[in-house]
Amino acid sequence: MRIAVIGTGYLGCNTSAGMAEFGFDVIGVEIDEHRLKLLNDGKAPLYEPGLDPLLKKHVDSGRLRFTSDYTEIADWADVHFICAGTPQLEGSEAADLSQVYSVVDMLAPLLTEPTLVVGRSTVPVGTSKAVEERLHRQAPAGSAVEVAWQPEFLREAHGVEDTLHPDRLVFGVQSEAAEARLREVFATPIEEGSPVVVCNLPTAELVKGGANAFLATKISFINALAEMADATGADVTQLAEALGYDNRIGRGALNAGPGYGGGCLPKDLRAFMHRAGELGVEEVITLLREVDDINQHRRARIVDLTHEMLGGQWIGKNVTVLGAAFKAGTDDVRDSPALDVAGRVQLHGANVTVFDPEAMENARKVRPTLRYASTAVEACREAHAVLHLTEWPEFRQLDPAALRDVVTNPVVIDARLNLDAPAWRAAGWTYRAPGRP
Ligand SMILES: NC(=O)c1ccc[n+]([C@@H]2O[C@H](COP(=O)([O-])OP(=O)(O)OC[C@H]3O[C@@H](n4cnc5c(N)ncnc54)[C@H](O)[C@@H]3O)[C@@H](O)[C@H]2O)c1
């Protein structure tokens, strides 16, 4: 089978390499020339553990290549996966679907044979029908071009593993032929035991939005409990552990911290609310608006705590921010709580120095006015407060005793709640972690 993967960001890179690993001939389509060049050299244009070797393996074998030319894939591929971005629309909470529609408008006029177009991008419910209408209107093959939606649940930092071994497969299809085709594409994980849910198009679209809305709710829930813990002297990490043993609740997404961020949850939650508004479903909006507010409040809470720990002064103070990525294991800085906090502290007048093991280049692009250090220790030099905002293992491995000699004031705010608190305290640090006594 021949597979086209259109759009090669975090989703499309993993998808194209994964499809090649499943044994198919794959062409990835990308309009960004810089990305394209890297990919054709077998290099990922982003940091994702395990992705580089997988790309290289299949580019070298000739099974995987990348192009910007849609004529190479249109009638070549048996299945076209759409993996274009769906960011938040500027000035609105809605999803910006222009990338998805640009893919459709570039592909459709070239489709002269029957084929299957499968959306993997996260989209508001109803989008797949709009995609279908656009395809049928513009494609010479007309209604012989079939649309399916197959939302993807990969987690950045585990993208390769999640692509090769998905925890579930959701096939939003309109025919048995489309289902059979998708079962063929995913034969390897299905044989391994990945469960398959076959459903209609709106259900498939809602599964993804619903999953992200639920995860965001769970994260904001534990962060609200962190506030309760602060008000009472309880420890939110133990609270999460004890709650998590209840299998109706589960331990996943119960880590209190600076709140969720990244290229998915924040914008997907808002797009979900926006669509609920268009559909007149007020319950969803009421619930999720609170979730979003609690999430934003976490960032403000860290800034307030920093101010308190600096003795109520910003000017003349040096603040170190450990972490720029929205979570560990990725270089993705989209809507990163770490960079947001860094930016807010800088706006208050403090001198902010940032270090991240993988996300420096991306961070510099979106926050060029922050200062960047080349190591964590360097970033901490002469600091009046150190903020631990992304949970990279190497930050946990820092030696608090050695770091004590580098800073001006040994104050650490462990917003991720995963440093070794007794070790930092024993080394003479004032250790604060919102949600822990
Ligand atoms: N990032 C994740 O972990 C993840 C997980 C599941 C689902 N998703 C969803 O997948 C979609 C893509 O997310 P992403 O993080 O990969 O986004 P991204 O912005 O990293 O990647 C999108 C890519 O599509 C390319 N593109 C845009 N228009 C194009 C066109 N007309 N032709 C060819 N390429 C085009 C862009 O240049 C870019 O490289 C989104 O809807 C997202 O919500 C993402």
Structural notes for this entry:
45% of the residues lie in helices and 14% in strands. The protein is of the alpha/beta class and 437 residues long. The chain has 2 domains: 2-199, NAD(P)-binding Rossmann-like Domain (Rossmann fold, 3-Layer(aba) Sandwich), CATH 3.40.50.720; 200-437, 3-Layer(aba) Sandwich (Rossmann fold). It has a 6-stranded parallel beta sheet, with helices on both faces. The protein has a 6-stranded parallel beta sheet with strand order 11-10-9-12-13-14. A two-stranded parallel ribbon has the order 7-8. Helix 9 packs across helix 11 and helix 12 (282-309) packs across helix 13 (337-347). The mean pLDDT is 98. The site of nicotinamide-adenine-dinucleotide has 27 residues, from helix 1 and helix 4.
